[in-house]
Amino acid sequence: MILVSSVCSFMSIKATRCSHKTPPSLPSTANQVSIKGHNEQQLCPTKFCCCGTGRRHFIEAAAATALLPLDPSTSTATDSMAMLNKVHPPRADWYEELYASVMNTGMKFYEEEIAGYKSHLFGILRGQAEKVLEIGIGTGPNLNYYATDTDVQVFGVDPNKKMEKYAQAAAVAAGLPLSNFKFEQAVGEAIPLSDASMDAVVGTLVLCSVKDVDMTLREVKRVLKPGGIYLFVEHVAAKDGTSLKFWQRVLDPLQQIVSDGCHLTRETGKNISEAGFSGVDLNMAFLSKASLVSPHVYGIARK
Ligand SMILES: C[S@@+](CC[C@H](N)C(=O)[O-])C[C@H]1O[C@@H](n2cnc3c(N)ncnc32)[C@H](O)[C@@H]1O
């Protein structure tokens, strides 16, 4: 994943976006610890191309279908587009296509190893959440874990529009009718949804890439209903003093340049713990096949 996205990023060039073309039980390796009074568990063996106006009309039209709980009287959609352009300026079409294609085919080993964690984590959504937002949905590798009910409505946001067809295919493969799936080109820092409109938010391998982790977490909290849950799986910095941390530090600047803004040394678990959720169940895992991105946090935060 890293190597290919590196190549992609090196080759990326600027393009205009404004063209007129049309916790459940855990895997057995879990060691449980308690932090901040919460039951925490630690696993440590160690374009659609459009102008702002067209886009706004598109979003409002979608909202009219009742899939998106957007309030057209607010500036949410406009803010979302402005933030998209600010934190994730347009890439060339071919670059976004290549990156999406690589994400669709290059993550198989990773997905195999993380499957047990995802299965336990996302399984709790089945039959419990009617409206689910996934931030940085990418090619939709999580949909088969939580979007299998025909009455769930899934809203996926991602700045890379080329992810959409893969995410749609993943939705169909999961058994979700496409009428219940909406992909929107947007960023986590400005989610084009109304306050308190989602039962759950899902995010995997995305807080490493967003420009502003805390702003994204504020947005996650904003769109969650009271009592709603945020489910996360994120790669994070290794423990201080380890050789992995040394290499993460050395390679982090290069990683940011070559992997579309992905950071290796973020302490995302800390951000989530301090984001003001009413409760956080935070777990750690170390994936043996994931090399530089082996250390992970995963869990549930409740609004
Ligand atoms: C490593 S991929 C992970 C995709 C998917 N969540 C998965 O688990 O395979 C990172 C994703 O985050 C998206 N992304 C990058 N910046 C973002 C932002 N500011 N807000 C939301 N998503 C973003 C990328 O386009 C990409 O789809």
TrEMBL record:
CDD domains: AdoMet_MTases (cd02440). Residues 133-232 form the Methyltransferase type domain. InterPro entries: Methyltransf_11, SAM-dependent_MTases_sf, Thiol_S-MT. Gene3D superfamilies: Vaccinia Virus protein VP39. It comes from the Eukaryota. Pfam families: Methyltransf_11. This is Methyltransferase type 11 domain-containing protein. It comes from Xanthoceras sorbifolium.
